[in-house]
Design brief:
6-stranded mixed sheet; 17 strands; single chain; 6-stranded antiparallel sheet
Amino acid sequence: MNPKISEIPVESVTAISVRRLALESFRNYSRLELELGPGLNVLYGRNAQGKTNALEAIYLLSTTRLLRGSRDVEAVRQGASRASVEASLAPFDSTLSLTLEAGKRKLAQLNGMKLPRAADLIGRLPSICVSALDMEIVRGSPEDRRLFMDLELSQLSPSYLNHLTHYKRSLEQRNALLRRAQDERVREDEFAVWEEPMSEHGAAIRSMRMKLISELSPLAAEHQAFLASEESLSVAYEAKDEGVDASAIGQLLAQHRDREIARGSSNIGPHRDDLAIVVEGRDVRYFGSQGQQRTAVLALKLAAHHRQRKISGSAPLLLLDDILSDLDEGRRRRLVEWILTEARQAILTCTEPEVAGPELLSRALLFEVISGTVTPRD
């Protein structure tokens, strides 16, 4: 393993792990009680049996987001009125739960006590998840890359989540004013009510994102070189305007207001920013091979895992959804080496356990998934 990447011995950090996972009417699971090991766990089985659904349930508790689909009701088992997901965590002996029900907000609980918002769960079960959907980080829209940064920052910084929540509300209200101003006169002080918090929180968001990328970029470059035989990778934050602080953003919002009234939406602020991801000197979105794109996503996610360990002193849970089979033999072997060296608790899904290799399998708990039933195997 690259010694630069391994500068923090994994034995020296703690880890929050999932000891027990309980599902009810979630996706294709009528009911599930699953005891997981504190180390490596492999869920295997044919496609469409429920492997990803079990992993998604853990991801939901970690981020309050579903891996697939934007509507919570999509995760409720057909014929049921609601779904629940619960996890018992070690070493603090705490329990997190979320209930999804059509037409209602998510109900989040900590140790049986209702939380004010589902977002209050974020950061209690830090995780890094890699799935085929993460290819959108390099292939997709700027929104996909902003989401990657927002999720990474929110898990370690409640203040970032607070800035993001207030910024989005101010942005929505300002956009509503812009659209209203297309038909009637809107006073300047009405805009100021929302432009001031938009400037304040927008500047904080942009600053924290830029710091994140400055920390992730060299780590991602090391992981890319390790996974892909010294292939180069660089990641840079791209602010789409010159608003470096709250005052500058506020001035730009006022300056461009007439133009944005015509558009009916705000074009100034961090909600328009992007990332430049470059492999071997070329924009990986347009010129990267499929292998380079997959490796760039992996390098970013493993760099995020390393950063969380370094900042919090605790290794985040690693969730890998059927990605080993998508890698060539060399990259798969190096990823497995990384998992064995750097991860604490990890949950991997695959169609055939053999794809993980004998060394990983010898240290993992195996679970076969068939039609929403999970069975431990030797």
